[in-house]
Amino acid sequence: MPLILDSSSESSMGSEPDLQEERRRLHHEADVVIIGAGVLGSALAVALANQGRSVILLEKSLKEPDRIVGELLQPGGVQALTKLGLRHTLDDIDAIPVTGYTVIYYDEHVPIPYPVIASQVSDRAEKQLCKYEGRSFHHGRFVSKLRAAALAHPNITVFETEVTSIITSSHNTQVLGVESITRKTHKDCFFGSLTVVCDGYASKFRKSYIHHTPRVKSKFWGMELIDCQIPTSHHGNVVLGDNSPVLLYQIGSHETRVLVDVPEGLPSASTANGGVKGHLQNVVLPSLPKTVQPSFKAALEKGSLRSMPNSFLPPSTNKTPGVAILGDALNMRHPLTGGGMTVALNDVLLVSELLSPENVPDLYDTQVVLKQLRAFHWRRKSVTSIVNILAQALYSLFAADDWQLKYLQRGCFRYFQLGGKCISEPVGLLGAVIHQPFVLFYHFFSVALFSIWILIKENGVLMFPISLIQAVLVFAKACEVIFPYIFAELRS
Ligand SMILES: Cc1cc2nc3c(=O)[nH]c(=O)nc-3n(C[C@H](O)[C@H](O)[C@H](O)COP(=O)(O)OP(=O)(O)OC[C@H]3O[C@@H](n4cnc5c(N)ncnc54)[C@H](O)[C@@H]3O)c2cc1C
Ligand SMILES: *[C@@H]1O[C@H](CO)[C@@H](O)[C@H](O)[C@H]1NC(C)=O
Which residue ranges does the record assign to the FAD dependent oxidoreductase domain (predicted)? Predict the structure, then answer.
């Protein structure tokens, strides 16, 4: 292990920016070392650098990413991006405005627009009505714009290098920096008062610092559809029915992303049945809206299928001095509700506020940093606990694989059909613009009770005793669906 001089103990605040630049470039030393220039790492680098911190950002490949993830940013994510001063990263990437969701249930569908906000026009007293909007786009183009913002920042130095290990102090557990390999041959070291691990869903480094491991029950299989006519344009379209959910949303002028959820061990996707391709061909294709089928078929024939695991990883607090774990490395939820980047950007906003020079003058003061990270764990809940619980609970309903869940799924759809608050508040939660966890609790149990009401009405008077038993079982299932995820949020 290299000898570490204790130079990082003195704060860099107020020193000359170009001296800092030299210190990063030549000596590989900074206030903060960030592992991974993804959505979280790039945005965090800019947020901290704007506060005058000296930042080293390490990324294994600066090529434009080509992935099937992170393509729909919720209105709550656009808001966070705006507050971070990074709203421009959504310009010139052929992004599509997203104004809500449409849920398609067999032959019916219900549009669920994002709620309307009354915003005060600053210099005049009148109120203006405007709609919350999200954006969908090619993930790689957005990440490249975020990276460009980091690359252009005078207080950030970006290195294209793959981090191989974390450097820990020899006399305690404190993290001091990282070791990396550049162009597969050249070994490097980087040192910072704080090391941020945000190396994404398959994080190599999380296991040393958090005790949870990701759970995967299904995969999303993705294709790019060309000139596809989705049921409602400018909406995220969710197709429900006998199978696991299918998502459709436009990501460019001509391109539409389709993501098909395929649970593990699904019989119709077994090798004997032609694998996932067979499942898409024989089961999914006929269940899609007629207007979508031609482009779906064409994409299948082209054969560019790709997949990603859909993970659940509950949040936890980090207790090791000198390090912070963030982004997908820290916390994941099913991507059904497209919440990951929105969580990441809101986390950047919150953590950069908690670690600002006003709150933490010297990042080498690890006790203060750890205290702020504990505060972060609880304060992020107002946004993230909602996104996490909603994603997991909604996935259980939408992928309904038993009769109780099927009742809840139908109840949920019928609930949306009621309109008014039955859609504006749920979609406000999903869009991360409503920050009261109780609203989620309220609507979830309203859906459960509404499902039971439909069940009793349908069964009629004579069946009432049976309905009663079914009602109890459906209600029990609803509790079984949501409570584990609520408890996961209450742990430290
Ligand atoms: C199928 C699917 C669809 C999704 N769709 C959406 C969506 O529509 N909307 C949404 O908001 N979220 C979505 N998500 C979630 C979203 O993609 C993630 O939450 C988000 O990308 C997390 O950002 P991150 O910065 O933590 O990780 P990433 O964006 O994955 O960034 C990690 C970075 O670290 C780099 N890296 C990794 N290891 C090293 C190393 N050793 N050294 C140097 N660099 C390294 C990687 O190259 C990468 O650039 C989806 C997820 C899945 C699985
Ligand atoms: C860079 O950091 C310095 C302090 O080192 C600060 O004064 C300056 O405002 C920062 N630059 C930007 C563009 O934020």
Answer: 31-61
Residue with tokens 């090529």: 63
Which ligand 2 atom minimizes the distance to the CA of 15?
A: 5
62-117 per-position pLDDT tens digit: 999 999 999 999 999 999 999 999 999 999 999 999 999 999 999 999 999 999 87
Integer angstrom CA distances of residue 40 from 80, 200, 272, 428, 474 = 12, 9, 41, 23, 39
For the CA of 12, the nearest ligand:
2
Half-sphere exposure of 191 (CA within 13 A, CB side): 18
Nearest CA to ligand 1 atom 29: 38
CB 189 within 8 A of CB 2: yes
Mean pLDDT computed over every residue of the chain = 94
Atom of ligand 2 nearest to the CA of 51: 14
- CB of 75 closer than 6 A to ligand 1? no
- Residue 81's nearest CA partner among 57, 108, 47 is 47
Is residue 236 lining ligand 1, measured as CB closer than 6 Å? Answer: no
Calculate the alpha carbon distances from 122 to 118, 125, 133, 212 in Å: 12, 7, 20, 46
Nearest CA to ligand 1 atom 49: 38
Cα 376 to averaged position of ligand 2 atoms, centre (Å): 25
pLDDT number for residue 420: 97
CATH of 19-93+139-212+313-386, one of 3.50.50.60, 3.90.550.10, 3.40.50.1400, 3.30.590.20: 3.50.50.60
| 390: phi then psi, degrees, rounded to nearest 5 | -60, -45
